């Protein structure tokens, strides 16, 4: 029997799909506005800003979806946090590389790049907020609770071993007192 899917998986997929749709719309708007105000470099800067925002924000959701594939395994918690932390290190490394590569590029319009990057981040955060506010996920999910508390079940008379661990114990100590309730 395979483990049940993690309840956050459909929510993360919905977030990624909505973010992808918003990214396409924002890319068109950023390219058009960047082109109108700053020409071809503005259009490319607008596209670059949106692309970077979407990729960076998607890395975390994708890393969680990948990590959820090991749900139910013995090392799930360790794998989950290792994969998500690896995604964050990937984002940090990409950020440093992109800043070094994009710094001083003649085709990059910093103002258009900044505003399109900000628009991409804000749109993605707004989508995340809407999806998470509309989700129907219990506070404690992906767990099963016992149906009967072990303390509520009285042991059978004579089934409690004596203090030496040998044989059933006789007398009132053998009964927890709950069996007469």
Topology:
Elements: H1 9-67, H2 76-102, H3 110-134
Helix pairs in contact: 1-2, 1-3
Describe this structure in words.
This protein has 181 residues and is an all-alpha fold. It has helices at 9-67, 76-102, 110-134. Helix 1 crosses helix 2 and helix 1 crosses helix 3. The longest helix has 59 residues, at 9-67. The protein is elongated. The model has no long low-confidence stretch (mean pLDDT 82).
Structure summary, number of beta strands: 0
Q: Could you say which overall geometry the principal axes of the C-alpha atoms support?
A: elongated
Subunit arrangement of the protein: single chain
The topology string of helices and strands comes to: HHH
Portion of residues within helices: 55-70%
Strand content: under 5%
What is the first-to-last residue Cα distance? 39 Å
Helix count, DSSP H or I runs of 4 or more residues? 3
Mean pLDDT: 82
What tags apply to this protein structure?
181 residues; mainly alpha
Q: Can I get a quick summary?
A:
This protein is 61% helix and 0% strand. The chain has 181 residues and is an all-alpha fold. Helix 1 packs across helix 2 and helix 1 packs across helix 3.
